[in-house]
């Protein structure tokens, strides 16, 4: 695709891709541009990707809901598509900026400098708090020692610590000022570190059985095997727009696949009008056989169906 396409977002992305860390690039774009600018740029990039027919496994153009994370998610979608095109060595069009004021005034690499300055400031504050704590500990330690009389010939820093012990009697033990590491000793009377008390987790036993009685002797009935998880759901896409669900079903049945159901997916987006996609339900025993490449025409995209958790 030759020529120049004007998009400030894609211009900034194209000129900084591979030169700036991904996290910084996403942060700069998502925080500078508006939602409308990002949506327009994203549509432009995906339209270009859809025009290329010889690349498989292209990321989907996901429609993000409006919210706090929409701009960041749209930016990540564009960057993921950019990486795919780059791996496939696709010649990209030249993206230009019609309005230079809509380019971030600072390069994305400058974010590292600001983050470093913030980190240094936080470390300085932590060191100051640590020094204040040490001074407090030293002050408390000095209240527990009694200095001895100094001689006239030397200035001594040794002190005599008076320790009482009922088992050995009252004795005076001379020692120097405790080392810095001794100020942080926290042991109990037995000389052991204080153990962490953890509350035991409460476990609840859930009982479960599967009935095995003769179904003809009961008034209540169980669901059919295919209705209780004995089926496998598959997505089949990138087919010709004229393809119908009955065509897909007949093709798989002729290949020995036990098809339970086949439903054509609605085309909600404009780009989806170029293809037909189906939700195919097969017997559980055919969940691996259905992925035989020879059962599908060249270029058809077949994947396991993904169920979104409620």
Please provide a brief summary of the model.
It contains 6 helices and 9 strands, in the order βααααβαββββαβββ. Strand 4 (159-163) and strand 5 (171-175) form a beta hairpin. Helices cover 31% and strands 15% of the residues.
**Distance between the first and last residues' Cα:** 42 Å
- Helices and strands, in order, run as EHHHHEHEEEEHEEE
Helix and strand composition category = alpha+beta
Question: Which regions are unreliable across 5 or more consecutive residues at pLDDT < 50?
Answer: 148-175
Biggest sheet, spatial arrangement of strands: 7-8-6-9
Q: In percent terms, what proportion of residues is strand?
A: 5-15%
Number of helices: 6
- How many E strands? 9
Helical content (DSSP H or I, runs of 4+): 25-40%
Q: Describe the sheet with the most strands.
A: 4 strands, antiparallel
Rounded to the nearest angstrom, the radius of gyration is: 36 Å
Spatial shape: flat
Mean pLDDT: 78
